[in-house]
Specification:
With 470 residues, the chain is α+β, with helices and mostly antiparallel strands. It has helices at 47-56, 87-96, 98-101, 142-154, 167-178, 219-227, 234-239, 260-263, 268-271, 278-284, 310-380, 384-394, 420-427, 461-469; strands at residues 7-13, 18-25, 31-33, 64-70, 76-83, 109-114, 132-141, 161-166, 185-191, 194-200, 205-212, 243-245, 399-407, 410-417, 433-438, 443-444, 450-458.
C-alpha cells in the first residue's frame, strides 16, 4: 500500500456482540493502543446496528484503516486439490469455477482463494510422486456482510474500509508484529461457542479448525484427530498449542497455552497489561501488508515488490549516474543556449537602432567623396567658372547642351544640334581642354537635329604652369 496509515481500528463481528480496538502510531513509528478512541457499547441489537453505534462515535479520518474480523463459524472453508498444475493455474481455476466448489451461488457470497505454505512441502505429493497443489477456498454470505458495508458508507468511513478476514488472520498479524522467531506455532482461541486452533508457519497463516465447546469427545481427542491431517511440526503443535487468545483455561491439554501479551515485548503497548482480546486481533489484520484472505467483490492485487541482485543494483546505479551527468550537461547546454538567444536578440535590437546611423554614414561618405573630388578638381584642373564660360563661348549657336556632369575629373555633356562633328571641332579649339571626343552614337530627331554625347578631359593646370616656367 502506498498510502501510510496512522491509525487502525479493528472490529470483531461476534455472533451476539462486537468487540473493537484502535491502534495509532507514536512518534517513533511504533504501534500503541489508542486510549482516546471510543469503545463499543453494550447492546442487544443486530451486529450491523452495533457497528453503526460504534462508528458514529468514531471521527472519519482518511489516514485510518478499519478492518473487520469474522469468527470461524461465519466462514466456510474448502480444501481443493489440483495435480500437475501451477499455483497460479490452480487459483485461477477455483475463481473461474466458484459455483462448482461452493455450496452457495457466486452472487450470494464474498470469497477468496489462497495457497497455504505447508502445501509446498515434500509430503504434498501422491503415491506416484506427482506434485499436488492444494488451495483453500474461503467464503462468507453476502447477507451478513452487506449490512455492515452499508453502515460503513452511511457513517462516512467508506474511504477507510480495509480487509475483512477471519479473526485468525489478525492473530497471525499480531504474532508477526511480536517477533520472527515464533514460527511455526499454533494458537487456540475461543470464538463464541467454539474453540478454534489456527496454524501459523514462517510464510504466513495456514488456516484454522474449530472444536465445539460441547463436544463429547473432549478437546484433547479432537485436537489429536486434527493433528493426523498435518505433518510435523504442526502434528505436535496442534496437539499442544503454544499461545491462546482470551481468558479461558483448558486443563485437558498437557501444556497450558500462554497469552502472547505476557511474553512478547512488542505487544505490551498494544495490550496495556490486559490479555489479548478479539478486537485487538481484528486490528492485527491491518498490520499485515497483504492478508491471506480478504472478502470483497473483486480479487486483490498483491503489493508491488522489487527483487534485485547486486549486478542489477550496479547496473541501475550506473545508468542513474549517466542520466544525472547527462541531465547536468543538458541543463548547462540549455542555459548557454538561452544566453546565446538573449545575446542574439540584443544584437538584433542594436542593429535595428544602428541602421539609420549606417545609412547616414554612407551618405556622409558620398558627400566627402564629392567634396574631395571638387577639391582635387579645383587644385589640379581649371576653375569651374572658366570651364563653363569656355563651353558657353565655343558651343555653336545651333547647338544647346541638355545635360552636364563631372565624374573622375572628366566632363560629360549631352547635346542636341545641327552637327555633332562641328560641335566637337569647336570645343577642341579651347586651351582648357586636353581632349574632346564623341562617346556615343549620333542619332537624328524628327526635326533633323543630331543628338550626341561628348566627353571632355580638362587640361591639368600644374602641367600648364610647369610648361610656362620652361
Amino acid at each position: 500500500m502506498l498510502k501510510r496509515f496512522r491509525r487502525i481500528t479493528g472490529i470483531y463481528l461476534g455472533k451476539n456482540a462486537i468487540d473493537a480496538a484502535s491502534l495509532r502510531r507514536d512518534r517513533g513509528g511504533n504501534w500503541v493502543i489508542d486510549a482516546d478512541a471510543p469503545e463499543p457499547e453494550d447492546s442487544s441489537g443486530q451486529v450491523a446496528e452495533q457497528v453503526r453505534l460504534f462508528l458514529s462515535r468514531l471521527k472519519p479520518d482518511r489516514f485510518r484503516r478499519i478492518t473487520f474480523a469474522l469468527p470461524r463459524s461465519r466462514v466456510f472453508f474448502r480444501e481443493i486439490e489440483f495435480p500437475q498444475l501451477t499455483s497460479d493455474e490452480a487459483l485461477s481455476a477455483v475463481r473461474m469455477g466458484i459455483d462448482l466448489h461452493a455450496h452457495l451461488k457466486q452472487e450470494d457470497i464474498y470469497f477468496d482463494v489462497w495457497e497455504p505454505g505447508h502445501q509446498n512441502s515434500p509430503e504434498a505429493r501422491d503415491q506416484e510422486g506427482t506434485h499436488k497443489v492444494r488451495v483453500l477456498l474461503s467464503y462468507v454470505e453476502r447477507s451478513f456482510l452487506d449490512p455492515v458495508f452499508k453502515v460503513v458508507r452511511e457513517t462516512g468511513h467508506s474511504r477507510s474500509l480495509g480487509c475483512v478476514s477471519p479473526v485468525s488472520c489478525g492473530i497471525d498479524g499480531l504474532l508477526r508484529y511480536g517477533g520472527r522467531d515464533l514460527f511455526p506455532c499454533t494458537v487456540i482461541s475461543r470464538q463464541d461457542d467454539e474453540i478454534v486452533i489456527s496454524l501459523h508457519s514462517e510464510r504466513g497463516w495456514e488456516g484454522s479448525h474449530s472444536v465445539s465447546l460441547f463436544s463429547q469427545a473432549g478437546i484433547t481427542h479432537r485436537l489429536a484427530d486434527m493433528a493426523r491431517l498435518y505433518p510435523e511440526p504442526f502434528h505436535s503443535l496442534i496437539k499442544s498449542p503454544v499461545f491462546r487468545v482470551g481468558d479461558f483455561h483448558l486443563p485437558e491439554i498437557p501444556r497450558e497455552p500462554v497469552d502472547p501479551c505476557s511474553i512478547l515485548d512488542p505487544l505490551s503497548p498494544l495490550c496495556r497489561e490486559r490479555e489479548l482480546c478479539m478486537g485487538l486481533c481484528a486490528a492485527g489484520i491491518g498490520l499485515k501488508s497483504f492478508p491471506e484472505v480478504s472478502f470483497q467483490a473483486t480479487p486483490r492485487k498483491r503489493p508491488f515488490r522489487i527483487k534485485v541482485n547486486a549486478f542489477q543494483i550496479v547496473a541501475v546505479g550506473t545508468v542513474a549516474a549517466m542520466l544525472v551527468v547527462t541531465g547536468v550537461g543538458l541543463t548547462r547546454m540549455m542555459s548557454l543556449s538561452s544566453r546565446v538567444d538573449e545575446v542574439n536578440a540584443r544584437l538584433a535590437q542594436i542593429e535595428k537602432r544602428m541602421k539609420p546611423l549606417i545609412e547616414m554614414r554612407s551618405k556622409i561618405d558620398e558627400i566627402e567623396a564629392r567634396k574631395k573630388e571638387l577639391t582635387d578638381f579645383g587644385n589640379e584642373l581649371p576653375g569651374l567658372l572658366d570651364v563653363l564660360k569656355e563651353l558657353a563661348v565655343l558651343t555653336p549657336q545651333d547647338t544647346w547642351i541638355r545635360n552636364l556632369s563631372l565624374s573622375n575629373s572628366k566632363f560629360r555633356l549631352s547635346a542636341q544640334g545641327k552637327s555633332a562633328t562641328a560641335c566637337v571641332a569647336s570645343l577642341r579649339k579651347s586651351r582648357l581642354f586636353s581632349q574632346v571626343k564623341l562617346v556615343s552614337s549620333v542619332t537624328k530627331t524628327k526635326d533633323g537635329l543630331e543628338r550626341f554625347s561628348i566627353e571632355i578631359i580638362p587640361r591639368n593646370s600644374r602641367s600648364k604652369r610647369g610648361g610656362g616656367r620652361k
